[in-house]
Amino acid sequence: MAGALLTVQDLRVGFLTEQGLVRAVEGVSFDLEPGQTLGVVGESGSGKSVTAKALMNLLPSYAQVGGTVDFDGRDMFAMAASREKHFWGVEMTMVFQDPMTSLNPVKKVGEQIAESLRVHLGRSRRDALAEAGDLLEQVGIPEPGARLTQYPHELSGGLRQRVVIAMALACGPRLLIADEPTTALDVTVQKHILDLLDDLRRARGMAMILITHDLGVVKGRADEVMVMYAGHTMEEAPTTTLFAEMRHPYTEALLETIPRIDTPSHTRLVPIPGRPPEVIEVLDGCPFAPRCRYSIARCLTNQPDLTSHGAGHLCACHAPVGTPSGTQARSANESAGTTATGLDMDQFTRNVPVADPGQSGAEG
Amino acid sequence: MTYLMRRLAFMFGVLVAVTFLAFSATNVIGDPLFNVVGFYASVDCDAVIAGEIEDVVGTIAGTGIGECERVIEAREKYHLDDSLPVRYGRWIVGMAQGDFGDSYANQMPVSTILAERLPKSVLLMGVSMVVALGVSIPWSVAAAYRANQPFDRASVAAGFGLLAIPGFALAIILFYFFIVRWQIFPSRFMDDNLFSRLHSLVLPAASLGLPLAAVYQRLLRTDLITTLQEDFVITAKAKGLSDRRIMFRHVLRPSMFGMITVVGLNMSALIGGTIIIEQIFSIPGFGRELYVSAIRDDITVVLAGVTVLATAFVVINTIVDLLYSYLDPRVRRAG
């Protein structure tokens, strides 16, 4: 797409382990326009953090990476190979999940922020510290001058995450990757941090990739959402489209796990039975099929491709939600009591202990 | 500041306890009078003066006259009639004023002996420490980057080898090759100028420092590998910092705890090592003097030695404790 800041095509990441090649990311593609926000949503192990690390060149050397990543006309993997010094940490930066551990405990906050400015922009120590103070002010830290000489352990979790954000903003990045930036924080602080990120993104015109397991977080904040599962893109759409007419059963299931303020009290949340698979072998069918209440026989043998469901709306499913095939598949499964993969349909409505999908049929 | 005061008070208490124990031991186990007047120490001179028994003048192996006068003179000179705490107090006050007493063996003031011998031993220990840290830190860094790869495995094996060789055996091996066969270094201590001193200390310091370096490398390598897996290292990488900068600015400092602790505790091993190494390389240092004095019961010298070593040990370990708070600001608040 013309004008895209970041174009990722067919990104693949594998880790060779003793059990075999773990395929953490399998053919992820997306575009990101300057100033836009992409929300990446999925459970633990869906490959979203690995995708972020691949983009940040943070994967260990034994990771096998494939595909192409183009940042404003520059081939990112070529930059990684030539050990480009002033790209990561300057034009593309990252905010991490746990501010308790992502700051160096033995260095003063000011030094840690100033370090990027000195290394990448060649600022003097004094100038860099002054700029660090400005950055602390921008991220809403009271008394920024006093904070500069404090150590991370002297700050609260919320303040530390603001420091991490200030660090990421130091060199004026064009793309900020926020990997679950609020997961480790108190609920009351989460919204402040998300709003702060949004305000900063708008003020600076930078693009953002917001990674989260919580669909509620991306609603109203992301321009576009990509739902990942087991390293695959399941569904991708403009945010409003996604919430209005979601097509993938996994997206629907994710949404039903979130408590909502507008539902009557004591309404049970609907769990997704089972766990995400560890993708070691190449899957024949859809990776979500064993946990899906829409699954049909074809899901077990043919991996669905991403197909278009309207403007910018892609979904990889044989029986998409809200389409005749999807409705038919679900009602067939409901009347049979089990899905095509043998999953007991009761598990979707009751808060039963999560059992292995293979055994659940016998128990029912 | 109160932390520092408490540390200093603690250090002072330890020193009083150590010196008192050492002083009591040498005064109770042996008879200090014996060291001055020999067998006459066993003569009951109070009874002689009271006229109850005869003086032993000339009766033992034809020695001189007035032995009881000598005994009484010695008792007065060394204040041996006072109680132990009083004598201890007098000794401590004297030391505080720089008077360590005289050597029984050659009547020289102990302070003179210390002044002549101690600097050589301190220099040896200092150079050994430079060798130990100068070898172990770069070695650990190089190994930690390549954890469990061929270089690291080879270095673990080499470290084991170095640990298995006692310092004196290493000293003799080095002595044979570098002094006897290749004659690169002098066979005894050359005290002409700083260069000659350092030149003669290369092999002794290597004998003392290399086995220590192997210990430190094992500790620091492990701690570096652990720290390299911390989240903040990923943050530093994401900031686009070079591996070198991450290692030396972010990882090294929080990884030094284990090693620094052992550096402090190992001081006694280093001090013990100098006694043997000074003997092998003919260095007229304090370790050698202490060894000789202990053999010939030269109590004032031994006591002065124990005091100096205990002080050094306690001071260095206090510095180590203070270093913790420099290395990790989180310790400061806990202190």
What labels would you give this structure?
heterodimer; A: 364 residues; alpha/beta; four-stranded antiparallel sheet; 13 helices; 33% helix; B: 335 residues; mainly alpha; MetI-like fold; 2 domains
Question: How many distinct helices of chain B?
Answer: 16
The percentage helix of chain A is: 25-40%
What's the CATH architecture name of the largest domain in chain B?
A: Orthogonal Bundle
Radius of gyration of chain B: 26 Å
| Main sheet strand line-up of chain A | 6-7-8-3-9-10-12-11
- The helix content of chain B is over 70%
Strand content of chain B: under 5%
Task: Please provide the count of β strands of chain B.
Answer: 0
Shape designation of chain B: elongated
Describe this structure in words.
The complex is a heterodimer of chains A (364) and B (335). In chain A, helix 3 (109-121) packs parallel to helix 6. Chain A has 13 helices and twelve strands. By secondary structure, chain A is α/β, with parallel strands linked by helices. In chain A, the strands form two sheets. Chain A has an eight-stranded mixed sheet, with helices on both faces. A four-stranded antiparallel sheet of chain A has the order 2-1-4-5. Chain A has helices at residues 48-55, 76-81, 109-121, 125-138, 144-147, 157-169, 187-204, 215-218, 239-244, 249-256, 297-301, 324-336, 357-363; strands at 6-17, 20-32, 37-41, 63-71, 74-75, 92-95, 175-179, 207-212, 224-229, 232-238, 307-308, 314-315. Among the domains of chain A are: 100-170, no CATH class; 283-363, no CATH class. The longest helix of chain A is centred in the middle third of the chain and has 18 residues, at 187-204. The model of chain A is unreliable at 352-364 (pLDDT under 50). With 335 residues, chain B is an all-alpha fold. Chain B folds into two domains: 32-97, no CATH class; 111-334, MetI-like (MetI-like fold, Orthogonal Bundle). Chain B is built from 16 helices and no strands. Chain B has helices at 2-29, 32-37, 45-49, 67-77, 84-96, 110-145, 150-164, 167-181, 194-228, 231-238, 243-251, 257-265, 267-280, 286-295, 299-327, 329-334. In chain B, helix 6 packs antiparallel against helix 7. The mean pLDDT of chain B is 85. Chain A binds chain B through residues 56, 58, 85-90, 93-94, 96, 98, 101-107, 115-116, 119-120, 151, 153, 164, 167-168, and chain B through 230-232, 234-242, 245, 249-250, 253-254, 327-330, 333.
